[in-house]
Amino acid sequence: MDLVSALQASFAQLIGPSAIFYALLAIGLNLHFGYTGLLNFGQIGFALLGGYGVGIMTVTYQQPLWVGILVGLLAAGALAIVLGIPTLRLRADYLAIATIAAAEVLRLIFRSTASDSVTGSTNGLYGFADPFTRFSPFDSSKQYSILGVNFVGDDVWAMLVGWTLVLVLCFFVYLLSHSPWGRVLRAIREDEDAARALGKNVFVYKLQALVLGGVIGGMGGVFNALQTKSIHPDFYSTAQTFYAFGALLLGGAATVFGPVVGAMLFWFLLAVPDAVLRQAIAGPDPLLPLTDAQVGATRFILLGILIAVLMVFRPQGLLGRKRELQFDGR
Questions:
Q1: Which residues cross the membrane (predicted)?
Q2: Distances from the Cα of 95 to the Cα of 21, 45, 190, 200, 224, angstroms
Q3: CA distance 64 to 304
Q4: Which of 62, 94, 221, 258 could form a disulfide bond with 90, CB atoms 3.0-4.6 angstroms apart?
Q5: What is the mean pLDDT of each run of 10 residues along the chain (330 residues)?
């Protein structure tokens, strides 16, 4: 069994585009859940609008790429407003129900044959990322080695842009979390009534956090669309939101770098057993009697067990502080 190649493949997931996409989703969820206590189970819906904003405006309506990016982010913010106004004055579970339902409804609308002329239906959209690729200083036909792992030029460009965006957003979240606005969010998370008694408009602060986190989720959708150069509605399933939640809990909620570290480790810990198990079932005399489909399921089982154990012994996550989980403020 070649453990070196398995680790190299896992390292590619550690720093690759998938980790960037889920880091962006988790950063948005961190503003929602970590700092404000909002249960958003439909973060992938914001990413869907971000990605489709790019695809629809550039492919269907022949607009410049920057217009598509702007429309995608505005659509994500508008969705947050539409969902937040009727639900944020109610209990947290109403927002959870509304967001998960909205994300699934949007996915079904965008994949329906009735919207084929605009969204491409089940075929999706493609051919819109050329302006983004033209800015790349890397040759698309070449491979570049990063610590022994080869990436094609387009992926290196996407990773450079993506990790830069992640770092900028982390700095932005750091500034917000250490500002009076961020302290109000923490107060709302710990005790809404106390924050309201101090004269804070809890509804407005929660709506602002929901919009901001939703727009960051939309950025994740924009990045994924430009990196994969295609958009397919079935990618934006509910499971993607829970992967992002898993990354957030793994790294630590209410921390600046927790979502990023969690997203990197999430895909690294998925890739390690996947690479090892696939080597174990390869060849004429396999070590394990598993099929490819069973290997794919087994890696999620192992990661789920690991996260469950982490929640028992370190519920605040790897970088989190236990005090952040004390919602009663004591």
A1: 12-31, 38-59, 65-85, 156-176, 242-270, 293-313
A2: 23, 13, 17, 21, 26
A3: 42
A4: 94
A5: 72 91 97 95 97 96 96 97 92 90 96 94 94 94 85 94 98 96 94 93 96 98 96 94 94 94 93 86 80 88 89 88 56
